[in-house]
Amino acid sequence: MNISQRPALAPDAVLAAALLAVDPVGLGGVALRAPASELRGDWLALAKSLLPASAPWLRVPHHASDSALLGGLDLAATLSAGRPVALPGLLARADGGVLLLAMAERCGPGVAAYLSAALDQHEVHLQRDGLSHAAPARLALIALDEGQADDEHLPATLLDRLAFWLSLEPAGAEQDAPVFDLADITAARAAWPSVAVPDALVQALCAAAMAWGVPSMRAPVMAVRATRALAALAGLSEADEDHATLAARLVLAPRATQLPSSEEAPEQAEEPPEAESPPDQDPPTDDPPAAEDDAQRPPAPDPQALEDKLIEAMQAALPPGLLAALQLGQQRQAQAKTAGTAGAQQKHAHRGRPVGTRRGEPRHGARLHVLDTLRAAAPWQRLRRRADTPAKRIEVRREDFHVRRFRQHRPTTTVFVVDASGSAALHRLAEAKGAVELLLAECYVRRDRVAVLAFRGAGVELLLPPTRSLARAKRSLAALPGGGGTPLAAGIHAARELATQLARQGDSPLVVFLTDGRANIAADGTPGRTQAAADALQAAAEFRTQALSALLIDTSPQPSEAARLLSVEMAASYIPLPHAGAQGLSQVVSLAASPAAVR
After folding, report:
1. Which residues of the chain does CATH 3.40.50.300 include?
2. What distance in Å separates the CA atoms of residue 368 and residue 379, rounded to the nearest whole number?
3. What is the architecture of the domain spanning 2-174?
4. Taking the model in full, what pTM does it have?
5. CA 555, CA 15: separation in Å to the nearest integer?
6. Coil, strand or helix at 549
7. Which of 102, 25, 117, 38 lies closest to 70 in space, CA to CA?
């Protein structure tokens, strides 16, 4: 292994490509977050050059169909042979090589499920079009994440199975990246199975993953495999601390979700001191001499010191933005978010994105899929063919018809339920107005809507019906006064009715409550804190029965126990934001409106 200056690619990116070439099946692959550029092209060229020349290198689109991935019926061969002939899919053809998933941030759940199953089982099962067989699919996946927006990420099911998460950046002026060639990789692949990883390193990697809040159990396993591959690249028969440290930085650090606890580990029980020889006695001289191997063997590493070293190495590898987010106690949302903030998906007969076909007749506007119809009819031609039927004619029957399936996103309507009672609500009302205006600016892109309910005094007012009009929202919000009592139960009832009505119309409602949870007006309009609190909890319980997505933002100067209990009763996400402005409130609501965050 030679060391030289490589200004184009950072050292970690080069190491990830080399490790993937040594153990492609065990490490799963790479999530490569980078736009199409020369830098990404250089990394892909490097990764391909380190693989054997015979290894497949195939590209799969993010919208690949089931037959393209799993395989299906070879229509021409089937019609020619008069019997079903299988056509292998991309997963089977990529056996022993690499699949490139283009635009992976837009990968659908079906494609992600098939790829995840292949990465887990290392084979693909085909049971369709009269075919039933299994084919090996020992492959690695390179997911090309080209998303520029913060809300576009790979599906979590794929991220969990890919060892390396890379964000390509040019190498610094003083960074030296290792240079590998195919001979180095071939030797490492041959030596990798016999490399030993001490138990102390395995335990330290697991402890570091727990300390940084890595939620996946696959991550430590892949870190151990990366440790073994690093030792094999170095030409060693046993991995050491440096290999484990580097593996923790490459595999575990990008998955961190929390800072390590500041509490010190419990002290281990001290061993009793050895009995010293009396001063008047000479030490025994008849002990056998230590074995030469034991004298040359290095001392066993301290488990706690090794764990601390791995934790420090992970911290040094964290991006500054992620480290700041962890210090504020925020969880990474990349693992749970999906592209866009559109509403839930629903099936549609005529509109939306094509998502395959189904058996059915082309009636009531359904579109016939000619190719799948011919595939369904092809295996039966020998049985259906009569003596007077020309040999080149294909007989298609009603049960062969396949029509297209479509899927579209339901529009999202965010319903703000604002507590406009009392003098403290005036400030919160201004923040709600600003957040609504910010969200409406995004609605023109997502075709979402916003509504505002305000409760104060003895009743509830629908201040802004569901709309996308920014001018109308400003006019409606400008004249809202504040002050009076807090009819919280009435506000929850009105929000439930409006959200239920929107759900019946085909929308995905998200209800956002801005309140401190302290009610003083009962459901019948009479004052009294005790009865008002009981009515609010009862209304929250009724709200929960509708299975509506809700977010309760505590507007108290300090987190309120009443607001927290109210959120638990209505099964809403509780967020104490006593100092949140309009921008922060808009970001929180946008995150809650994403499909993965909605309950």
Report:
1. 2-174
2. 19
3. 3-Layer(aba) Sandwich (3.40)
4. 0.58
5. 49
6. strand
7. 117
Average pLDDT over residues 458-481: 76
CA-CA distances (angstroms) from residue 40 to 8, 77, 251, 281? 10, 39, 20, 73
Q: How many CB atoms lie within 10 A of CB 127?
A: 10
Q: How far apart are CA 88 and CA 70, in angstroms?
A: 7
Angstrom distance (rounded) from CA 155 to CA 353: 19
Q: Which residue has the higher pLDDT, 275 or 429?
A: 429
Tracing tokens 């018809």 back to the chain, one arrives at 401
Q: What spatial distance separates the first Cα and last Cα of the chain, rounded to whole Å?
A: 51
**The two three-digit tokens of residue 333, written as one number:** 């949302």
Any bridge partners for residue 467, and if so which? 450
Residue 69 to residue 199: CA distance in whole angstroms: 39
**Domain 412-592 architecture:** 3-Layer(aba) Sandwich (3.40)
Number of neighbours of residue 426 by Cβ within 10 angstroms: 13
- Residue spans in the chain of domains classed CATH 1.10.8.80: 195-256+303-327
Taking domain 195-256+303-327, whether its CATH number is 1.10.8.80 is answered by: yes
Q: What are the residue ranges of CATH 3.40.50.410 in the chain?
A: 412-592
Buried b (16+ CB within 10 A) or exposed e, 454-476: bbbbeebbebbebbbebeebeeb
Note the helical H segments in 125-198.
156-159, 182-191
* CA proximity to 260, closest of 304, 311, 225, 217: 311
Averaged over 529-534, what is the pLDDT? 90
pLDDT at 174: 58
